[in-house]
Design goal:
Blueprint lengths: L1 H17 L12 E4 L1 H4 L5 H13 L2 H4 L3 E3 L25 H11 L3 E7 L15 H10 L4 E5 L8 H15 L4 E4 L17 E3 L11 E3 L4 E3 L1 H7 L12 E3 L11 H13 L4 E3 L8 H7 L2 H7 L8 E6 L2 E7 L5 E7 L5 E5 L7 E2 L4 E2 L7 E5 L4 E5 L4 E5 L4 E8 L1
Parallel strand pairs: 1-2, 1-10, 2-3, 3-4, 4-5, 5-6, 6-9
Antiparallel strand pairs: 7-8, 11-12, 12-13, 13-20, 14-19, 15-16, 17-18, 17-20
């Protein structure tokens, strides 16, 4: 009897070890690059190598970016005779393991894409029915990150389908960041904390300030459409489990000011900072924005708290984000179509975050004000903050107790 109980215990432990995601990954939002926004399925081996080289050359690796993720279109149209996925032999003549090795040689990490359905969104082989086989293959290629989409899923249950791939990744044995991409249709913020490390909360982003572009049965969303789409989800975000507001469009056609606001907001929202532009042709101003370590530090704050809208005065939105050590990030975004002279009186605002029990004690403490984009100090909270903010531009500050 005792022997049987021991066997039953060991079986239970073994099963439970699979019924969880890899812990300890993505304790802060992942930083990286994804091919989809700019290249769609027009990807190849040289592009990935070039991007890896640019991570190092442009200082992006030094700024904290580490994941290079190939989106849809990397595989051949059919599986092989054994049911394995095959890298497209024209696009990737040396295969995925060699490409992963190249990325790793730069001190970076490598990611791939697939889909919970029978086919990917681009019509390539999906993972439905092949989850464990595909997970073992990714592990054998030393993949570090999997973006898992939601096309051609028929009547699949989203939570169940993502749990299946989670368990498959765990069984394969290689720690892989699991990025859930079902567009927020099934409210993953309610169930995905123990399934993935990040989950998309909206449909695909597009490179505009505040627009919606229709594609028949679905739409692409501009930056502020995405920001405003979901309500009351920020409490689901934290170390190891983040709301994902999609890959960034910084450098893809908006103004430099709009790019700064976009980057600031993704950092405030504790969203993964996944670049979506062509780094080979990026302008110095784009790289300056993307590699801003002071802004990135807000995104990477160890508390992992998602920021929130505090007020809107004169069409200038004020956003707050509590940081570790009693510090705060505050972002003012000019939503007007003309520059504005803006004033913020610290004595008239009670700044706090009820959800996380964080409050800024402005009555008993004075805080220094740091301008994160211009890398300079702006005095402290003993005086009103006065500034001019350009069209769709941003003032992003960090408050630190004196």
């Amino acid at each position: 009897m005792k022997k049987n109980l021991i066997i039953l215990f060991l079986i239970t432990v073994s099963l439970n070890s699979f019924a969880q995601k890899f812990e300890g990954l993505a304790q802060t939002p992942p930083l990286g690059w994804n091919s989809w926004n700019t290249f769609s399925t027009n990807i190849n081996e040289q592009l990935v190598k070039d991007v890896a080289d640019k991570f190092v050359e442009l200082g992006l690796k030094d700024a904290g970016y580490e994941y290079i993720v190939l989106d849809d279109g990397w595989m051949a149209k059919e599986r092989d005779a054994n049911g394995n996925l095959i890298a497209d032999p024209v696009k990737f003549p040396n295969g995925m393991k060699a490409l992963a090795d190249y990325v790793h040689s730069k001190g970076l990490k490598f990611g791939l894409y697939n889909c919970a359905g029978s086919k990917t969104c681009g019509g390539y082989p999906g993972s439905r029915g092949y989850e464990y086989q595909d997970a073992r293959l990714y592990a054998s290629w030393d993949v570090d990150y999997l973006k898992y989409d939601w096309c051609n899923t028929d009547k699949l249950n989203a939570e169940g389908a993502y749990m299946t791939m989670r368990d498959a990744l765990k069984a394969a044995g290689r720690p892989i960041v699991f990025s859930i991409c079902e567009w927020g249709d099934n409210e993953p913020w309610k169930w995905a904390k123990d399934v993935g490390h990040l989950w998309r909360v909206t449909g695909d982003i597009i490179n505009c300030w505040d627009c919606e572009v229709g594609h028949g049965s679905w739409s692409s969303w501009g930056v502020w459409k995405i920001i405003n789409l979901r309500k009351d989800i920020r409490k689901a975000s934290g170390p190891g489990h983040f709301n994902d507001f999609d890959m960034m469009e910084v450098g893809n056609g908006m103004t430099d000011a709009e790019d700064r606001s976009h980057f600031a907001m993704w950092s405030m929202l504790a969203s993964p900072l996944i670049m979506g532009n062509d780094l080979r042709t990026a302008t110095p101003e784009t790289i300056k924005t993307l590699s801003n370590k002071e802004v990135i530090a807000v995104n990477q704050d160890k508390l992992g708290i998602q920021g929130f809208r505090f007020s809107n005065e004169f069409n200038v939105e004020t956003w707050l984000k509590p940081l570790a050590d009693g510090n705060w990030a505050i972002t003012f975004v000019n939503m007007n179509d003309e520059p504005i002279d803006f004033e913020f009186d610290w004595t008239k605002h009670e700044i706090g975050d009820d959800v996380n029990g964080k409050f800024l004690d402005l009555k008993n403490n004075i805080y220094t004000i740091r301008d994160l984009f211009n890398h300079k100090n702006l005095g402290d909270t003993s005086k009103k903050l006065k500034t001019t903010i350009g069209v769709h531009d941003v003032l992003m500050i960090k408050l630190q107790k004196k």
